[in-house]
Structures are given as C-alpha cells and as structure tokens.
C-alpha cells in the first residue's frame, strides 16, 4: 500500500472513532457515570480486524483526541482510558483469531460468533482496566466497582455488536465493488422501496407513541425489529447492517437522553435489561442475515457446480442447452448460429503423453477460446473433447469467418509438456437458425452431423449444415450409433459375412472360397444399418477395439464348428482399427485363441489402414511384429 493511501485510511479510522465518541458525548455528563454504549469499541475492533494489529497506535490517538476535544477527563484517568481501549481491542482480536480462521472475505455465521466471543473478551478487558482507572482517579467509588464493571462491559459489547459487523460488511463491499460476493438474486427495487416506506413510520411511531407512556417505550422499540428481519431475509447484508446500527444507536441514545418516553436506567438491573435487549436487537437480524446469505451462496454454488464443467470452468452441456433455448426464444438474437467443435485425434494425446497433460491442454484451449469471445457469443464444454459455441445475430457467412478464426486459434495453440509440445486441430460443424421456432435438438444434431462429416474428410476443417437439415427429422447422431453398437455387442446382434477375394484375370483361381474378407452387418428388428456409420461411431467413441475382438472371436468360432472349411482356407482377411494397435492385450488374446482354433494362424491376414500405421510407426511396427510372430499375416488396406 502506498504511504498516501495509508495516511488517508488512518485519518478515516480516526475520524470514525471521533464520530462514534461524539455520539457518546451527547449523554448527560455526571461524575463517574458510565455511558450505555461505547461505539468506539466497535470501531477499534473492526479496524484491527481489517487492517491488522499494527494499527493499534491509532486507537491511542483517537482516545487522546476524544478526551481533548469532546470528553475531558482527569489527567490521572487518561492513561487508564488509553490502555483500556488499546489492550481491549488487541485482546479481542487475538481471541477471535485463536478460536478459528476468520474468513472476512464473505459473511458466515461461525465467523460472527467468533467475533462476538472476541467482543466479550474486549469488553471484559476494557471494563477491568477502565473501572479500575475510575476508582483510582476517584471518579467512582471502589464500592461501586462491580456494578460499574458490569455497566462498562455491557456498553462495550453493545458497541461491538452494533458497529463491528456493519463495518466489516461495508469494507467487503468497498473492496469488491458489489453488494454481494456472488451474483445471487435479492429482492427487487419495488420491495426495497416498500420496506423503506414502512421503516420511517415505524421509527416515528416509536418516537411519538413512546412519549405518551414510558411503560411501553421499550416495547415500541421492537416495532422496527420486524422490518430488520424482513431486510435480513430479503436484502443484501449491508442494508440490514446499516439499518440495525441506525436503530440500535438511535434507541440507545434516546434511552440515555430520556427521549420518546424512555427514562435513563437508574439501577444495574434496569441497565442490564435495556442493554441486553439492545444487544439482542443488534445481533438477531445480523445472524439471520448471515444465515440467509450463506444459504443463498450455497444454493448458487450448487447451481453453478451443476451447470459448469469442473475441468475448464466453462458452462456444461445442460447450461449450454438452456442458453441456446433462451436465445432462440428472443427474436433479436436471430439469426443464431451454433458451432459444434470436436478436437481431432485428441485421444492420442491422452494415450501417448498423459491424461494430466491432456487436461492441461483442454484448460488452455478453453481459456484461449473464452478470451476471444464477443459479448454475444457463448462457449460451453459439451463433454470430452467437444465444445459448443453460440453466435447470436450472425449469419452463416459471418459465422464462417468466426469459425475459421477459432479453427486457426486451435491449430496454432502449443502447450509444452516435458519432452513434448502438445497441439491439436478441430473439426467444426456449423448450422444457422434464421427464423423463430427452431429447436435446440435439431440444431445440435445438424451441427454434430456436419462436424462428423468434417472429421470423416480429414478433420481440421469447417462444414456447414444445410438449412434443410433443420426441417428434416433428426438423424441418428454418432453417439446414437455408438449406443446401438454397444447394445448390439452385448446382445451378439452383429452378423458376419464373407466376401470372396478373386483375381481380376479369369482362370487364375478356381477356388474363390479359399480367399475371403470378413464384413459385418448390424441388424435390428429386420432393419440393416450402414456399416460405415457403425464403424465410424465405434472409432469415435472408443468401441473399435472391442468390435475388432468381437469379429475375431465370432469368425474363429465359425471355423471351429466347420473344421473341413477351415482347412481349405488360404486367406481370411479381417480389418483392424487403429485403436487395436494400442491394445497390447489383443496379441495375448490371439495367442491363446489360436492355440485352440481349427483355423491355422497362417490363414489369418489382418489389415490396417495406412493412416493408422503412420500415426504411430513405432507402435505399428511392434504390433505387426507380434502378429507375424504368431504366424499371422499382415496387409495395408
């Protein structure tokens, strides 16, 4: 903190201390009398909590100025007064912090109770030193030591209860620049105006009606209590704190001056009743306000956790759907373009480097995209390596320009990870809703299908979905195909077919059944599904290795039941996916399965694509060597 800022803050605290002391100077000045409330105690306590105990000299300065300007005292009592206020505030802060961590960044009930305990220690310390000083300076007889001790202590407790919480809340509001830690919803402006309109008559009723009968003066002071409870339940804590401090200081001052039907307490019992009531009046609304505020923050945290992605901090799929549906309902948001962003071959990063590095790349990517968003754009993580992006008031042509910018950002991103530099590309599907009535499900399905088309054509590209896709029935998505495939694998509903491999020149091979390629078909309720869609979904959702093993197992089972045909086979070609190359247990499975198979290992020829082979040459070379060691053959497809 700069020296000038420190000076201004020091002057501010001294000014508050003197203002609080000026209120006390209004009370009748009688030799040895003890005021009903000591607001400077609340100021000093809050100052040391916020600024640190190193600010204790300001308390001494404030006490000296107060006695010099507003409340003169005998010179013999002055050191007791200074010592009482300084040591009491230090003791209160020390005890409050010893009871547990004080989270002053937000409003918590347990923090309030720790502060209240510290306030009691402050009051006890101040009362013991201060009343001793009164007796030594002959301002109060030693015979009145215990009653004076009780009055002094209760006055300090009331000062702390009335001012310290409000000052802490006000300091938090000043530092963060808002009335609340989180964007929770409080009562609307109209309700606040009604509350304010009711508060003024309640205070006037306490002033006017109390003058008619002193018997009901204290009871009438509870009229504003209902309004304080209303504020605690519905408004920001700062409003409740300010209103509570105003009411307690006003009621205590009127009681001390004998206004509005109040008569100054003449005995210890009357003083205790008045001050205990006022302390409860100060504490109860603030406790309710703190509890209500904690509930609001907890509810907000739960909603945020349920609607945000934990890894990247972006909104999740559920929040994305809600946002898109809200924007679709607003005509001013149209045309609306939805982008479906899917990272290309991201699983290789997790498999070849580590999941931790992959997560770090996802976080970096999310931060990069978020930093380049405009005010009318909304980004979310839909799951895995997929992101959704909504562009409001942008046509297809404008959205293509934005999509290209995001694609370049992703392609140019580099993230160092030990011995590697991580990078990736993205396939982006794009669809635009130009008219009201578009459905989120149709938009997402069209964008997903377009993204899948971009990925199938090499990735790192943008594909626009035609407008007719929004009016057409929702086509099965790749995830839908994956779910059907998984169910078919569990229920053994995938059928295998053989396609003969014959030479193009006639007469070269008169036994076409000896060379075959195994194909698959997924059948459901007498309906065939395209094998290309099934295989593509298997590769995208990590089901390809499981599908490969299923095909091998069923194929060998078929030949085991037909040993004569198995002995006649020259080549049985089976396609393997790139995912099988990363599954070392497949080689162990083949070794065990071929030992009891009627089909010779030399008849098996496994085919993989060139793309899968060159993706990781070391892994492909090792896998091919293991297959050949088993006696199997290998071919590039």
Please state the second-level CATH architecture of the largest domain. Orthogonal Bundle
CA distance, first residue to last residue: 70 Å
Radius of gyration, taken over Cα atoms and rounded to an integer in Å: 39 Å
Determine the number of helices (DSSP H or I, runs of at least 4 residues): 25
Mean pLDDT: 85
Report the β-strand fraction as a percent range: 5-15%
Class based on secondary structure composition and strand pairing: alpha/beta
CATH fold type of the largest domain: Arp2/3 complex 21 kDa subunit ARPC3
Number of strands: 13
Percent in helix: 55-70%
Assembly annotation = single chain
Structure description:
The chain has 25 helices and 13 strands. The protein has 637 residues and is α/β, with parallel strands linked by helices. The chain has four domains: 1-177, Arp2/3 complex 21 kDa subunit ARPC3 (Orthogonal Bundle), CATH 1.10.1760; 181-307, no CATH class; 317-473, Alpha-Beta Plaits; 479-636, EAL domain (TIM Barrel, Alpha-Beta Barrel), CATH 3.20.20.450. The strands form three sheets. Strands 8, 9, 10, 11, 12 and 13 form a six-stranded mixed sheet that branches. Helix 6 (145-176) packs parallel to helix 11. The radius of gyration is 39 Å and the shape is elongated. The model has no long low-confidence stretch (mean pLDDT 85).
């Amino acid at each position: 903190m700069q020296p000038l800022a420190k000076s201004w803050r020091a002057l501010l605290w001294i000014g508050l201390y003197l203002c609080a002391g000026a209120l006390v100077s209004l009370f009748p000045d009688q030799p040895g009398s003890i005021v009903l409330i000591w607001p400077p105690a609340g100021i000093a306590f809050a100052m040391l909590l916020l600024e640190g105990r190193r600010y204790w000299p300001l308390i001494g300065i404030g006490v000296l100025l107060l006695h010099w300007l507003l409340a003169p005292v005998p010179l013999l009592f002055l050191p007791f007064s200074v010592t009482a206020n300084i040591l009491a505030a230090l003791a209160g802060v020390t005890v409050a912090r010893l009871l547990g961590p004080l989270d002053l960044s937000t409003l918590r009930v347990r923090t309030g109770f720790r502060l209240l305990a510290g306030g009691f220690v402050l009051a006890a310390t101040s009362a013991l030193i201060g009343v001793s000083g009164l007796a030594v300076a002959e301002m109060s007889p030693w015979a009145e030591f215990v009653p004076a001790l009780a009055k002094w202590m209760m006055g300090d407790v009331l000062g702390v209860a009335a001012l310290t919480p409000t000052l802490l809340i006000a300091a938090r509001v000043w530092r963060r620049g808002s009335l609340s830690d989180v964007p929770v919803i409080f009562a609307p402006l109209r309700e606040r105006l009604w509350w304010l309109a009711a508060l003024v008559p309640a205070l006037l009723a306490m002033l006017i009606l109390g003058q008619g009968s002193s018997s009901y003066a204290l009871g009438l002071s509870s009229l504003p209590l209902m309004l304080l409870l209303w504020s605690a339940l519905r408004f920001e804590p700062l409003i409740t704190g300010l209103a509570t401090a105003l009411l307690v200081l006003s009621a205590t001052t009127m009681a001390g001056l004998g206004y509005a039907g109040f008569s100054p307490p003449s005995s210890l019992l009357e003083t205790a009743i008045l001050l205990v009531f006022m302390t409860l009046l100060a504490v109860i609304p603030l406790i309710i306000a703190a509890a209500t505020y904690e509930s609001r923050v907890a509810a907000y945290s739960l909603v945020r956790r349920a609607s945000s992605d934990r890894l990247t901090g972006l909104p999740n799929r559920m929040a994305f759907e809600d946002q898109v549906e809200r924007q679709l309902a607003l005509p001013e948001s149209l045309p609306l373009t939805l982008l479906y962003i899917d990272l290309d071959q991201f699983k290789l990063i997790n498999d070849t480097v580590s999941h931790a590095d992959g997560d770090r790349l996802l976080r970096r990517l999310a931060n990069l995209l978020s930093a380049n968003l405009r005010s009318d754009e909304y980004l979310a993580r839909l799951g895995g390596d997929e992101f959704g992006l909504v562009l409001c008031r942008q046509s297809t042509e404008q959205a293509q320009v934005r999509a290209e910018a995001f694609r370049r950002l992703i392609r140019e991103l580099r993230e160092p990870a030990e011995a590697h530099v991580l990078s990736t590309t993205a396939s982006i599907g794009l669809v635009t809703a130009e008219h009201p009535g578009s459905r989120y499900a149709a938009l997402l399905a069209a964008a997903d299908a377009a993204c899948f088309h971009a990925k199938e054509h090499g990735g790192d590209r943008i594909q626009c979905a035609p407008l007719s896709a929004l009016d057409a029935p929702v086509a099965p998505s790749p995830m839908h195909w994956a779910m059907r495939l998984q169910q078919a694998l569990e229920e053994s509903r995938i059928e295998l077919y053989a396609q003969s491999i014959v030479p193009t020149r006639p007469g070269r091979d008169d036994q076409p059944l000896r060379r075959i390629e195994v194909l698959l078909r997924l059948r459901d309720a007498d309906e065939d599904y395209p094998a290309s869609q099934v295989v593509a979904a298997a590769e995208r959702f990590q089901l390809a290795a499981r599908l490969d093993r299923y095909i091998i197992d069923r194929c060998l089972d078929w030949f085991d039941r037909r040993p004569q045909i198995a002995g006649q086979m020259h080549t049985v070609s089976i396609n393997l996916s790139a995912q099988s190359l990363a599954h070392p247990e497949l080689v162990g499975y083949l070794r065990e399965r071929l030992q009891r198979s009627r089909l010779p290992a030399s008849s098996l020829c496994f085919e993989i694509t060139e793309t899968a082979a060159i993706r990781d040459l070391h892994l492909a070379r090792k896998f091919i060597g293991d297959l050949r060691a088993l006696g199997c053959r290998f071919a590039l497809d």
